[in-house]
């Protein structure tokens, strides 16, 4: 039997936007058809939203993107003022990004593991699989324990996921898990430094959830730290109200897509006539025929009054192929060069906040 | 221009399990190939988990299923002791099921609307579209307001989504929106009566979220009701610990799938050696190639120690086709006839609960 | 190592339309959404084309359908005057239907073979795999040789595939491989008896191709039997001209779909103003985004003047699930009860035919 | 109403391999996951088959690829000895490539046409649509007539599609539709010059089919030109026998994939023990779950003894995104620089051929 070490040898490496000037390639694709033309149009919409000084850019992440080699793309987007807020599944932010920030890696699995041939053996070795990628389950447990430790250190009350993720950034700083100290950069830390708020509306559904379960279990009968996802929604809606022109760059669908689209309606419910998202791009492999939100078209979202249809583009492609082209295009066209970050985390910390009991 | 009334004429009608004895059809499919054989195998696994007296059955719902005519299938499953807990997206439970419980309906959209031709017009008419289905946005706002009213009536503290959804069931009883009073039955009400807990781990991501935003906004600076999704996770984990043998019937993927699978690991984190889910069926149109959780195979989940592989089946089909066959098969084979409901909601109300500050 | 006999034990069994009255189920689906509603609408369009006395019904087959348990559905459609011509891939007609007519069977493969785990072993055992189904390669070679024998018995000249497939029907009759003699019925034999022409426009691309290669190789330098696919096209176009009202029932896409749609244009090229196909249904899992014909919508075909859009329906579902519902619906509604077969094979044998040199 | 000229303004432009050095990008993708890693592995397998001096490279084309801006990729592959034979759908070669060789173009359609909104109008304007691309139907008719003219000029007998396509190359030379004369290069012409045989096994299923129908109709009762697809199969099998080491680069599935894979078995039937295809890459958006050949895995093909599994890779992506990366990688790594074309058309013209009566 193969040993654990033999299987965890080749780490996934994160692609670097700066190294690949894809502008001529994407420009050529604009005159082709199907996904290539859609990709080129999406790239130009993302460029346009960055050049629009008023526009706040919200990045939505679903699917296992960090484990797939896209961490550095998102870090570069944060560092280069190409994104103002992030709405994500918990797994991307905690199990994968924060996990790598702690010094762990994802590993390349051989093609023969892709279809489930070998999962029994992996189980015994405590190796977790994401399609063609391996994770050391023992390292993942350290990640769970680290989130528990962070939660234990917070005053017992209800927090938005954003506030807790900010604490995770502070933890990385305290522990010296920073680029300045010779470690890899991460989304959590870059967002902490650049004041980009990160929301995980289903925050219990990830490694942090394990931390929370342990925390709340240990403190039965005593006050605990809780996650108020309603507060997440309230905070993001406040940002929409403070900065009415917005654009969405969505990778995958799921909760992040729905949540980010819904803030237009939420603003209305608070009595503020907020405009629909002015720009919207979604990269997905889902399709629209089962009626699920993940694959539903942006035109459909316009019937709900959430997304304007002038600058919207669905790209039906897998993100590791499409995102380096779309983000790389905007990067190398220097679309954000005149742009300042909106520092939305600061905006939120100045808000009068509701008091969760 | 067509009027709103002209577009909202033909309601979606919910299919009735009792009226369609699909047993011979599904049995024939067992000797065919591809999705028909997978469907038949999934049906027999669901039958098997119902006949296993020890097994607690967790139903996971993602995608717009209630609006698609499947409400009565789930109600019948609850009423006939075919499900012990539900983990769902908020939209299915609040925007669609509770919405219909309030007396509203979903409407059939013409084929010509499916691909976005007409969304501008729909926007003006305040009609929301889900693929081939229409919703009256003004009725949806009433649903938002009703959740706000319910939330306003609760003592300010952190609740699991389950507790809040239970309040919604109590509201329906108080208001007489029950079958006994001549109204349609609903998932929320049937689950309330049968003590089946319903969890929406991303509860702010639906109509209830709008209710919460309004509630928390109105009470800025004062104690508010909040949703603690960590508590959801804690509660569902407690059920796994109390009833170690479990089976999953999952429609779609997303947060409900991940959340329900994760409780095996969460139990372990609490120091309890809980077995993997013994049975697992997933109906989905997603595929596994983008590495996202929604389409990831159940074999992959076994590498994480979450799902056993003896009785697992992926069915790659759209749920409105596959679920009436799978649920109908178990229903007409009377698989649950000797089964009592686990009344898990009562189990939870007897737990010593953490105190969210 | 498993033996060949152990792997080839459980044959695929063909579903019987007569045994499953799906009318109430399909009628219920008409009021639901997504694929169920599409399926119901497709069923009612197929019903409508059968009730239209003028309409000639062309059935198009792509994908491995016979090996999947659908043979009897097509046989029943032929025997009950529910189809007037068939356009198919060669594999369905020769490697699968004629193969079973020779007394061979397809076998159920265990779930663990689906994803390629075990193909090396299968290779050694001379077992061929189609996803979840096994074929004995030695039996398939007998099928190849039988087609060679039939070809060897024909006068050397150019034939349409239809003429050769008709010879295969005559062969079955001569050899007593008929239901009257206690054998299973087959598409090739039923079509032979009912004068339903079968076209395989890419006829070399199947077991018959192996027969042809052997035949032409053995006769190098001498006159050979050849397949003129242009003659196929010419013949089917003549049928369109003789019977202008037509409907298409298409399972899968590929060459059969394109070929059958194209006869409208071909008639025009012969100077006859033929109407577009009046009815069209396609069942497919392909999608439209790659621009390939297989998944292209029937609306797109209308831009080419091939398909009218009043009665067209795409059903995005796998055929083993959707076809028993669609064909069974028309069958149990007795849509074809007043219908006589068009006996198109006789029409063609009376045509003045081109002389292939 | 928009005029035809207004809709046919922006031509599709073909991407140029030489202009985009994708090597660093593809190398980075090799350390990522999902489709990007698959793409990188496919690129390195294609590189490897070009560096293997013994290997004959067979390119298979299905889907509308030329209309999508990939014509120049294939022309460059031919001109740079990166392909030895082509197996294609008729539409790519005749309706699209030969069509452009005649001086016509494909045009970009606005996003609003993609989903069928406007097909009625297009029908009236005689504009044909392929997803997001327009074709002038009147120009397509000229293409049909040109093939008829070429066929009319040939001696009446049975030809392989390869022989007829070669005539189309000769026609372009005679008519001066060559790069030397200032016109665009084409697959048909480049293959003619480089002695790369092109096979369209379902040759009646394209614009050439219209030419044939007209030809055979005009000559009823007289000897006609016919297409013998069995001869295609025989010829390609002879090439496999003459050059046993082969690799497949397949875009899409359908008849070309099946046909090219089958020659291994056909050789065996002729008594020659030919090795399986040593290398195989397929780019497709189809999936394997419906059992159809287009999406079936290359591992499955190995159970049939057609494809070796050491160097095989499925890439689940749309071709306009993936092919410029895969072909461009091999091009810029100069994988074929030491390679001479196999000039297989010459090999075939020296064969003793069967005499089709």
Read across the widest sheet of chain A, the strand sequence of neighbours is 7-2-1-10-11-12
Number of strands of chain A: 13
Strand percentage of chain A:
15-25%
Q: Mean pLDDT score of chain A, rounded?
A: 94
Given as residue ranges, the uncertain stretches of chain A (5+ residues, pLDDT < 50) are none
User: How would you classify the helix and strand content of chain A by structural class?
Assistant: alpha/beta
From the structure provided, what is the oligomeric state, counting identical versus distinct chains? homotetramer
Radius of gyration of chain A in whole Å, from Cα?
Answer: 20 Å
> Largest protein interface?
A-B, 93 and 93 residues
Count of helical segments of chain A? 15
Helix/strand order of chain A, N-terminal first = HHHEHEHEHEEHEHHEHEEHEHEHEHHE
- Binned, the helix content of chain A reads 40-55%
The rounded distance between the terminal residues' Cα atoms of chain A is: 54 Å
The largest sheet of chain A is:
6 strands, parallel
Q: What best-fitting shape of chain A do the alpha-carbon axes yield? A: globular
């Amino acid at each position: 039997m193969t040993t654990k070490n033999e299987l965890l040898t080749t780490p996934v490496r994160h692609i670097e936007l700066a190294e690949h000037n894809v502008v001529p390639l994407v420009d050529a694709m604009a005159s082709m058809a199907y996904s290539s033309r859609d990709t080129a149009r999406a790239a130009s919409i993302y460029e346009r939203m960055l050049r629009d000084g008023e526009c706040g850019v919200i990045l939505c992440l679903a699917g296992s993107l960090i484990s797939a080699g896209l961490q550095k793309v998102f870090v570069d987007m944060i560092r280069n003022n190409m994104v103002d807020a992030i709405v994500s599944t918990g797994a991307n932010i905690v199990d994968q990004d924060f996990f790598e920030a702690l010094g762990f890696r994802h590993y390349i699995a051989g093609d023969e593991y892709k279809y489930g041939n070998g999962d029994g053996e992996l189980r015994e070795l405590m190796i977790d699989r994401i399609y063609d990628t391996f994770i050391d389950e023992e390292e993942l447990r350290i990640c769970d324990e680290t989130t528990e430790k962070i939660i234990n250190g917070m005053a017992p009350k209800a927090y938005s996921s954003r506030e807790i993720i900010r604490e995770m950034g502070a933890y990385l700083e305290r522990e010296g898990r920073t680029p300045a100290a010779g470690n890899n950069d991460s989304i959590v830390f870059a967002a902490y430094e650049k004041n980009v708020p990160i929301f995980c509306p289903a925050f219990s559904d990830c490694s942090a959830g394990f931390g929370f379960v342990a925390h709340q279990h240990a403190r039965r009968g005593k006050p605990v730290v809780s996650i108020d996802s309603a507060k997440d929604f309230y905070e993001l809606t406040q940002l929409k109200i403070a900065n009415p022109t917005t654009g969405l760059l969505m990778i995958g669908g799921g909760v992040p897509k729905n949540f980010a689209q819904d803030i237009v309606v939420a603003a209305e419910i608070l009595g503020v006539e907020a405009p629909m998202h002015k720009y919207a791009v979604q990269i997905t492999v889902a399709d629209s025929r089962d009626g699920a939100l993940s694959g539903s078209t942006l035109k459909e979202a316009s019937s709900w009054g959430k997304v304007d249809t002038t600058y919207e583009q669905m790209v039906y492609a897998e993100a590791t192929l499409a995102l380096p082209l779309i983000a790389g295009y905007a990067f190398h066209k220097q679309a954000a060069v005149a742009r300042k970050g909106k520092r939305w985390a600061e905006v939120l910390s100045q808000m009068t906040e509701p008091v969760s009991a």
